[in-house]
Amino acid sequence: MATAGSQTSGEYISHHLQNLHVGEGFWSLHLDTLIVSGLLGLIAFGGMMLLARKASSGIPSGAQNCVEMIVSVVNDQVKDTFHAKSDLVTPLAITIFVWVFLMNAMDLIPVDFLPLAASSAGVEYLKVVPTTDPNLTFGMSIAVFFIMIAMNLKFKGVRGLLKEALTVPFGKYLFPVNLLFRIIEDLAKPISLALRLFGNMYAGEMVFILLAVWMGASYWWVPAGAILSLGWALFHILIITLQAFVFMMLTVVYMSMASENH
Predict the structure, then answer these.
(1) Domain extents for the chain?
(2) Could you tell me which of 145, 163, 215, 259 has the fewest CB atoms within 10 Å of its CB?
(3) Is the pTM of this model over 0.70?
(4) pLDDT: is 118 or 219 the higher one?
């Protein structure tokens, strides 16, 4: 219950928004984010690797059919958006979509289920949705940013990249303005990529927590709260899928921009 014992609604909400961490300040590590995201990645991509080894050219199994459908959809999106030749972009897009989707989907587990199980094992705090942690979303977006820089260097070279940064869009005589605009544009990409995913998933998690508080306030509210939670969960399936797709597509767009000359 949301307010069981001496725990108030505010304490309940604060408890659910607290990460399991070691260290303090900048050097703290959010262990729950690292463990959950790592396990999901291991399960997803380890499973996909096993399916690839056992793949059959005949009638595919349900799991193989699902993976082939995801790969086909993502590959079509990459072909429509990324017009250069690269062996990295499609695997990167598939990795991002599958991994972000699974991390988002952890939000569909009842908010008290895993934290209560962890508390019985002596773990005080546990946040099970890695994408509600800005450290993870910024980590992923910064990785995309560095891959984008490497893609720029691959297709344009150092000279071509500098020429583009200094001369576009106002010409070489306004190179300080061009460079300033380019710096702002490039820095805005990882920031917006990270904050968009974090903000949407954090808001979704807060709705589930507030519904749990509401149901915990009185037994009379439990049926109505359960119906609302079910409705929000069904709608949230669309959100978690859309956010994974948006993160993937923006990554592909950034790679495409890096491979093309203005």
Answers:
(1) 9-259
(2) 163
(3) yes
(4) 118
